[in-house]
Amino acid sequence: xxxxxxxxxxxxxxRTVELSDGVFGIEPSNHAIYLDVKQYLAxxxxxxxxxxxxxxxxxxxxxxxxxxxxxxxxxxxxxSPVFRGGGRIFGPTPRDYNQKLNKSQKRLARxxxxxxxxxxxxIVVVEDFSFETPKTKAYADVLKSLGLADKKSLVVLGGLxxxxxxxxxxxxxxxxxxxxxxxxxxxxxxxxxxxTEAAVEGIESNLNK
Length: 209
Description:
It comes from Sediminicola luteus. GO terms for molecular function: rRNA binding; structural constituent of ribosome. This protein is α/β, with parallel strands linked by helices. The chain folds into two domains: 2-45 and 98-207, Ribosomal Protein L4, Chain: A (3-Layer(aba) Sandwich), CATH 3.40.1370.10; 47-96, no CATH class. The protein is elongated, with a radius of gyration of 27 Å. The chain is built from seven helices and six strands.
C-alpha cells in the first residue's frame, strides 16, 4: 500500500512510502485485538485494594454484654462485622491482575489494529521532524496543518525526540510515542495514526520478525 509523504505543513513532498502488506494489509483479527487490549487495561490496575477483616481489627476481645436477658441478639466481640468499626465480610484483598499473552498473539494484534486503520484511511505519513525548543504551539500547528486539530491522534516517532514529546504533553487529545512503545490499545484508542518515515521502518522491522 503506497501512501504519500507529507511535510509538517500538510503539503505533499512528492515522495511516497510503501507500507508493508504483512503489517498494514493483513485481514484484521478482532479477537487478537480484544485479547491485547484486555491485557493492557488489566495491567493498568494496581491491585492494592484492601479492607480489614475481623481478625485484623484492633479492639477489645471481652464479651461486650451478657449472653441472655438483654432482649437483643447475642454479641461476643466488638470486632464483629455487624457493628460499626468492625471487620468487613469478604472484602477486597490485594491481587495481581497481570494476564499472559504470547508474543506472536500480541504481534498479530498490533498488525491487525494497524491494518484496520489502513482500511479506514486513518494513517498519515509525514517526514521526520523536530523542534528547536519544546513548544506546545508548534506541535498544535503541525496537527492543525494535517487537519487533526479536533481529532484524537497518535503520533509515532522513529526514536526518542525530547522536544517533540515535551511539546505534546499539554496538548489534549494527542499523544506521542516511539515505534517501540506502540501498543494495540494506543492504536485502537486514536482516530488517526501519524507515522514519521523513520517510524514506518521501525514498526515494520519490529513486527516482521
